[in-house]
Design goal:
Elements: E1 2-6, E2 14-15, E3 18-19, H1 21-37, E4 42-46, H2 57-70, E5 76-80, H3 87-91, H4 94-98, E6 102-105, E7 115-119, E8 125-130, H5 137-140, H6 149-176, E9 184-189, E10 223-227, E11 233-235, E12 238-243, E13 260-267, E14 270-277, E15 283-289, H7 291-299, H8 301-305, E16 316-322, H9 331-341, E17 346-353, E18 359-363, E19 369-371, H10 377-392, H11 397-420
Parallel strand pairs: 1-4, 4-5, 5-6, 8-9, 9-10, 10-12, 15-16, 16-17
Antiparallel strand pairs: 1-13, 2-3, 7-8, 11-12, 13-14, 18-19
Helix pairs in contact: 1-2, 7-9, 10-11
Length: 422
């Protein structure tokens, strides 16, 4: 039984005003050919299928055309909702898709509703998949009035842990009835503490998204297929618990990263895992330096010639970070003038001037200014309170914990609203 594990397609993404549809279509075409050539039995897409909860009609067409094609290639396809997806939108056609052996789980339900038994060509059970989607607060706990931020967080973590245990216990009961040992594969879309993030998912990680430990997953799991983090990685250095990462770069700090899908074969219940590189479908570059260094890089013939053979866009998408020591007036115009001198189709997506990025007034122990963009909002608020105490002489100690908890609760509610609205 062979699986391909992928996630975080973010179909319909508009990136700094530019559609990623062409790259997404190229990836799905490549994935379809991979499934055919590798004789894959099961495709798992672990969440964030779409970039928003209300994808445009052409994005929906791209998605459903792929599902129609994949139904004739894979024995089983499993799709779960991520935090960017609308659970109800994904679930709407699930009864129809089930006829094509495509199982969609948008809204978390009863444990047995998330269990899928995959049979071989002789209708013999070969694998159990527990398709757990992104778990929202309303799915896992009863929200009570007057909860503190800490109580809310602890109950959410307990709810997620309980859900995974119930699903795995249900799967284990089914597995014990089998005549042979078959693997249990479990999905998820969440942030496990210690995971490496990129700019696209460097959100306000307060509450449960930043505090989940690897111990929430039961030991019965033979392979854990996760989504949410865009950098391919293992969970707590365990080879059988993995994020596949996004198939195309979703931000400039993902530029140059090797993107993969994961192929998993089973020897009994033991997974044999092989990363398969995803082709580069467009050139995305981050350039740093003073104005002269930026000019040299942009006008270097090798810069415009060195494009991947699989590129689907004629442009080279570039982020420019000015790091010169001297102020550079009219920086945007000067960079655009440099680009106009070249013959390459260079698209300057973003220009950042490090000279004018506001620094936090609190210094580190090495007296090096920190950038606001690199700090968690909770840390910034805490330092603001400390500044108030130092500058105005106001004693904040009595109410500091109260204010911090209230601030965290507000941020948590904003994040939940953002997730629910796509």
């Amino acid at each position: 039984m062979r699986i391909i594990h992928t996630s975080d397609w973010h179909l319909g993404q508009i990136w700094n005003g530019r559609s990623r549809k062409t790259e997404s279509a190229a990836f799905l075409n490549w994935l379809l050919e991979l499934l055919k050539s590798q004789s894959v039995d099961v495709l798992i897409a672990a969440g964030d299928i779409f970039d928003t909860g209300t994808p445009a009609p052409d994005t929906q067409t791209l998605y459903y055309r792929f599902l129609q094609q994949v139904s004739s290639v894979c024995r089983t396809t499993v799709i779960i909702a991520g935090n960017h997806d609308s659970p109800s939108f994904l679930d709407a056609p699930k009864i129809l898709l089930r006829e094509l052996n495509i199982y969609v789980v948008g809204v978390a339900g009863q444990p047995e509703e998330e269990i899928i038994v995959v049979n071989d060509s002789n209708q013999e059970p070969m694998m159990i998949i527990a398709a757990v989607p992104f778990l929202r607060d309303r799915d896992i706990r009863i929200i009570g009035a007057g909860e503190s931020a800490e109580e809310k967080e602890n109950q959410s973590i307990a709810g997620i842990r309980r859900h995974y245990k119930q699903v795995c216990d249900t799967a284990e009961v089914i597995r014990c009835k089998m005549e042979r040992a078959i693997p249990l594969v479990v999905t998820g879309h969440l942030f496990v503490a210690g995971g490496k993030t990129s700019e696209k998912v460097r959100e306000i990680h307060v509450g449960t998204l930043g505090q989940l430990g690897n111990d929430i997953f039961p030991n019965e799991i033979d392979y854990l297929a996760l989504g949410h983090l865009h950098i391919p990685q293992t969970v707590a250095h365990q080879e059988t618990r993995r994020y596949s990462g996004s198939p195309i770069p979703m931000s400039f700090d993902e530029a140059g990263q090797e993107k993969i899908v994961l192929q998993i074969d089973f020897d009994g219940r033991t997974p044999i895992i092989q990363p398969i590189p995803v082709p580069v479908f467009s050139k995305i570059v981050r350039i740093e330096g003073n104005l002269e260094e930026i000019r040299e890089k942009l006008t270097d013939p090798c810069f415009s010639d060195d494009k991947p053979e699989t590129a689907v866009e004629p442009e080279i998408f570039v982020e420019v970070i000015y790091t010169g020591t001297q102020p550079e007036p009219d920086l945007i115009r000067k960079i655009n003038d440099i680009v106009s001198e070249t013959k390459a189709k260079i698209d300057i997506v973003r220009i950042r001037n490090s000279r004018i990025i506001t620094a936090v007034p609190i210094q580190t122990s090495a007296s090096t200014p920190e950038k606001l963009e690199d700090l968690n909002p909770v840390i910034i608020f805490e330092r603001l309170l400390e500044n108030v105490q130092k500058i105005r002489g106001i004693d904040i100690n009595e109410r500091k914990n109260e204010w911090m908890n209230a601030y965290k609760e507000i941020l948590d509610e904003c994040l939940n609203a953002q997730h629910n609205n796509g």
